[in-house]
Amino acid sequence: MPSAEERTVHQDRSDVPPTRRDEVAAAGSELIGGPAGRRAWFGSGRLAPVQAVALVAIGMFALGMVQKMPCYNWAWFRGASSQYTHACYSDIPHLFLGRGFADNLVPYFDRLSGDMQYLEYPVLTGLFMEVASWLTPGGSIQYREQMYWMVNAGMLMICAVVIAVCVTRTHRRRPWDGLLVALAPAFALTATINWDLLAVALTAAAMLMWSRGRALAFGILIGLATAAKLYPVLLLGPLLVLCWRAGKFREYATALLATAGSWLAVNLPVMVLAPEGWKKFYTFSQERQVDFGSFWLIITQRTGKSIDVESVNTYAMVLMVLACAGILALTLTAPRRPRFAQLAFLVVAAFILTNKVYSPQYVLWLIPLAVLARPRWRDFLIWQACEVMYFLGIWMYLAYTTSGDAHKGLPTEGYQLAIALHLVGTLYLCALVVRDILVPERDGVRADGSDDPSGGVLDRAADRFVLGRNVRPVRQEAQLVEGERVEWGVPPRGAA
C-alpha cells in the first residue's frame, strides 16, 4: 500500500493532460507540436482544465457554424438540393416559417396551417424556440430566417459550453475528459441542426448533480430535460437498478419525485390550457412512419415492403424491453456494480438503435454519456468517424433523391451502408462498455482505484442485492497496481 504522502501526490493528478496519459491523444498532438510540457497553458495554474475545455468547445462550435455558411448565405433559400450537397441543412430556419414563429403564432395555442396543425416539439423546447423568435430582429423574411438561426446558434452555444463544463467536472480526477466532448467532430457538425442541445445540457447538468450526491437537483434537471426531449427519462431506469443493488432507495425516491414535479411544473399549464397542442409531440412520435437512419428503413428498402406504424412501434418496444432486461441482468450479476454513466450510455444507445428513426443530431444525446462511460480516445474517435460518415451519408442521399435526373449524391445502397456504419459503430462502443463492466480491471476510469465517480451516493456503497457469484468488494482507496504508481486515467498493464 502507498504511504499517505504517496496517495496525496497520486490523488492530485487531475492536472495531467490527455497527451500524457493516452497514446492516441499523444500521437494526435504531434499535429500541433506534440504532447503538453511543463510550460503549457493548462495544468500549471495559467489555464484550468474547465477553462481550456470551455474555450475549445466554443472554438469547435464556431467551426460548426462556419460549416453551415453556404446554407446561411444562399443554399437554404435556393431549393432543397443545394443545402444537401453542401451538408449544411438545419431545421431551424425552415421551422421559423413552417411553425408560425415568423407570424408570431403562439406554440401549442395557435393552430398552424397544413397537416401539422400544432408544434410537434416538447414544451420546454417550444419555449426555447419562442424565446429565440422574440430576440430575432425584423426585416425581410430571408433576413429574419438567417437571424433566427443565428440567435438560436448563440443560445445553443451556451448549451454546448454547459455540456462540456459539466462533463469536465463530473469526474473530479479526470477533468480533461471534457476535451472529448469539446473536440467531437459529430458534435460540431450537428449542434445547430435542431434544438437537441437544450435537453443534452440539462441531462449533463443532472449527471453532475448526481455525482455530487444531490438527488433533488438531479431529479429537477432530469424532469426539465424530459420536458425538452423524451430520452432523458430513460436514465431513471438504470439508476433504479443501481440503487436497488446498493440499497439506496431513499435517494432514488427523491430523484423520481423531483423529476415528476419539475416535468409537471413545465407541462401542466400547457396541458390544461392547450391540450390539443400539448399532446401533438406524443401523437406525432407514435404516428411517425419508419424514417431515416434506422435499421427498419434498411429492411423496408431491401425488401420493398413497408411496415405499418403500429407494428413497427410494437417491434421497437419489444426490442427495447429486451435490451433493458439485458442491462438489468448485467447490472445485478456484474462482478462490481457498474458505473452510472456506463448504464446511462447503454440504455440511451439501446433506444437509438431500436428506434424507427435516427436523425443525425441524435448523436448529441450519446456523446457526453459515451465520454463518461468510456473516455478512451481511440474507441471514441472510431465511433465518431462512423457518425461523421452517417452525417455525410444522409445529406448525400437526400441530394440524390431531390436532384431529379441529375442524381447528384449517394444512391440508396450507399445510404444503407452509411446507416450500417452508424449502427456498427454504436454497437462497437456498447460492446466495449459491456466488457468493461464484466471485466472491471479493464475500466480506465477505475484504474486509479476509483469506484463510480459519477455515482454520487452509489460511489463506494456496499452491495445489498446481487445475483452474481463472483462479486468483488469495492476498494476503499487508490492502490498501486503491480507495484507501480498509477496515473489518473492510465489503465493497468493489459487494459484496453
From TrEMBL:
Pfam families membership: GT87
Membrane topology note: Multi-pass membrane protein
Subcellular location: Cell membrane
Primary localization: membrane
Keywords per UniProt: Cell membrane, Membrane, Transferase, Transmembrane, Transmembrane helix
GO molecular function: hexosyltransferase activity
GO cellular component, one term: plasma membrane
Classification via InterPro entries: GT87, UCP010361
Transmembrane segments: 47-66, 147-167, 179-210, 216-242, 312-334, 340-359, 380-400, 415-434
Annotated spans, Disordered: 1-20
Sequence similarity: Belongs to the glycosyltransferase 87 family.
Record's protein name: DUF2029 domain-containing protein
Lineage: Bacteria, Bacillati, Actinomycetota, Actinomycetes, Kitasatosporales
